[in-house]
Amino acid sequence: MTTRGRHVKSAAIGGLTAVAALVVVTPLLLVFGFLLYQGAAAVNLDFFTHLPKPVGEVGGGMANAIVGSLILLALAAALGLPLGILGGMYLAESQDRRLPLILRFLADVLNGVPSIVIGIFAYTVLVLPMRRFSALAGGFALAVIMVPIVLRTTEEMLRLVPRTLREAGLGLGLSRWKVAVRVVLPTARAGIVTGVMVSIARVAGETAPLLFTAFGNRFWHGGLDQPIAALPLQIFAYAIAPYDDWHRQAWAGALVLIGLVFVVSLAARVATRGRYSAAR
Amino acid sequence: MDTSATLGRTGTVEGLPLSPLARRRSAARHWGDRVYGGLTRGAALTLVLVVVAIALVMARMAWPALRAFGWRFAITSTWDPVADRFGALPFIYGTLVSSALAMLIAVPLGIGASVYLAELAPLWIRPPIGFLVELVAAIPSVIYGLWGIFVLAPFLRTWVQPALGQALGFLPLFQGPPYGVGMLAAGLILAIMVVPYITAVGREVLRAVPDAQREAALGLGATRWETTRIAVLTYGRSGLVGAVLLGLGRALGETMAVTMVIGNRPEISASLFAPGYTMASVIANEFTEATGDLYLSALVEVGLLLFLITVAVNGLARILVWSVARVPAGSQA
Amino acid sequence: MADGILVKQLNAWFGAAHVLKDIDLSVTPGGLTAIIGPSGCGKSTFVRCLNRMHEVIPGARATGTVLLEGDDLYAQDPVVIRRRVGMVFQKANPFPTMSVFDNAVAGIRLAGVRNRARLREAAERALRQAALWDEVKDQLGRSGASLSGGQQQRLCIARALAVEPSVLLMDEPCSALDPIATAKIEELMLDLRRHLTIVIVTHNMQQAARVSEWTAFFLMGELIEMGVTKELFTTPRDSRTEAYITGRFG
Description:
Chain A is mostly helical. Helices cover about 75% and strands about 0% of the residues of chain A. Chain C is built from 10 helices and 10 strands.
């Protein structure tokens, strides 16, 4: 092939892969655009402040679902963050030989376990003994999903802190744990917070593990040991129902949810861009 | 200056005893280190235990069904809660077919896009498109399902399936009434969800290929694409296979979007137009309705199968990806 | 076939950093020219401007004229240039997923040569020229990365030679190698310079004295002095050259 032909081929393949990249991101436009178009009208004050109306009646909102999601996320964070961050610190600092490898592998594997399976786990561990669906069970399931993500991001962020900083701390006579907690952790704080935010955004959209743990609730929850509504659950229930008004609310709910996820993703990107982006 | 950081437990410096203050400091240091080490190691062990617990707990709950049906569970098609007879073949079939269809579409697109992002795109374009890919991957499954019900399925029903039926209807793949929902919709929506995954992980794998390799190719007079082909893709190929497997793992376990567009009928059909059912979907739909212990146990057994398959696929995938690159966890991978 | 290089007013930047300043120099066809100087003086950058590898780095650019036997390199297709001007890098970088054979012919394959017989012939020729043939002739199928460090570097040299360039650039080719491997490669250089123009960058002055006929001394992006190696090392004209050579700074 002539040199010119090789250049043409290179450009052609560049073009083809560019088209592939375009196709990959097109659903973003399609889905978000659709939600905006269908759901924007239904996102009003009522949506955020009212409870769902009885079947057949028009109006009402998803206030309980929004609050429910927030409560579930708070529970998940309370259970999952300490475990995830401590685990990440372990992976980044530990001198042990085998446990870190096992842990890293299992964390990645846990990351890939379908969330519905984790729902079954939470069901068996909490719902069965308690004999009821509950916010606790839902929060627990979400925490299990959250931990591997937080763990790996924490580890990555801690590893980005230069060795020399640790050595400086040790050289000054600080004990290893002080170096880890007072020197390394604060330096990596922005990255870790970002990782936490991203993981929260990810579990905020999880529906499957909540189907038989939190279960959903058409009213305000009665306590943490009671079933509780959640935004994705409500979206699901409304989407598969036969009522147009519910469909509209499902779109609105989806718009709110996707807006939340996008805002957090954008914030995470912006927060880490200066510090951690590669040159290439 | 306090040098007792490196002392060890003897409490002395070169045989000379330490002052009480220094000795206390040294002891406190050890105590602090030990607590820290214990806490972090404890967290690590807890996670390991959780993974083990998931397997054990599920195995125990599935035991009645395992004992009642044995191997035949995976190859029988009857799913009869009334008669307490359960066979998971339709769900296994549905999971495999929908995932296979998804991978067929997602792999070329995903690898192509990752090559573009990592090697061929102009530098200024890479961050924004990379970000868009992350956003696509971040859209929750239930929202894709919502879009699937109200946009994709009607589109398939009105335009795509009739056209396919006319043009290729002689193939059993494209026969049957155009419902819209069904295996085709499930496969497509899975493809859409899995492709950004493959792209993101693939991109990290390719970026991890050392520059020295690229230089070697460029130095020989290779074009941009030739450099990618001989230096980058070859070096990173096992990692790319890993990226594909990660995508497969995700496709196998995907629940909500598939449940909402697959039609939820436990049938095995050769046609892509027909409704189907997947392992994840049957659990999602029937778990809370399961009356009877054997019913629930059968569902958990389906979950156990799903767990084992995804663990195997993901485990293999991780090993392959690690052989080339360490993948940052924040990329949803 | 050896070509001469004429460099006129070559300037190079990394972003805003001006790393090569108004370089004028001439590389005699045939024979070996060494570029010496302390770290950061721009010698690697200079050499990479000769086959247009410098501009590959994001943010890097160069201006000026580089003539290869009268052809302006900066007016031509870089892909074509890099076949005429080959390069060997500091750390050997054979393609690890390819065999010794495939590595050796990688460059020729790019040019479109498919004929197995021709490829085999070219591989043998290149590997012989790189003094590696005897060591690998029975194991051409083994992975390029399974060789020792010195052998890998010779494989890279073979790979570069296979496309029959008229100039070979070597950027500190021995700095990652042990003395025995280094000696083998220096012997190779003495052999090769009979039919190629070779430009090597080295921080090892003794090496420059051993293998080169001409030497150029760079300091802080400028060409301070260039001349016949023996003369430069025994009677340098510039005081800075003398200071570097006698080890007063490094």
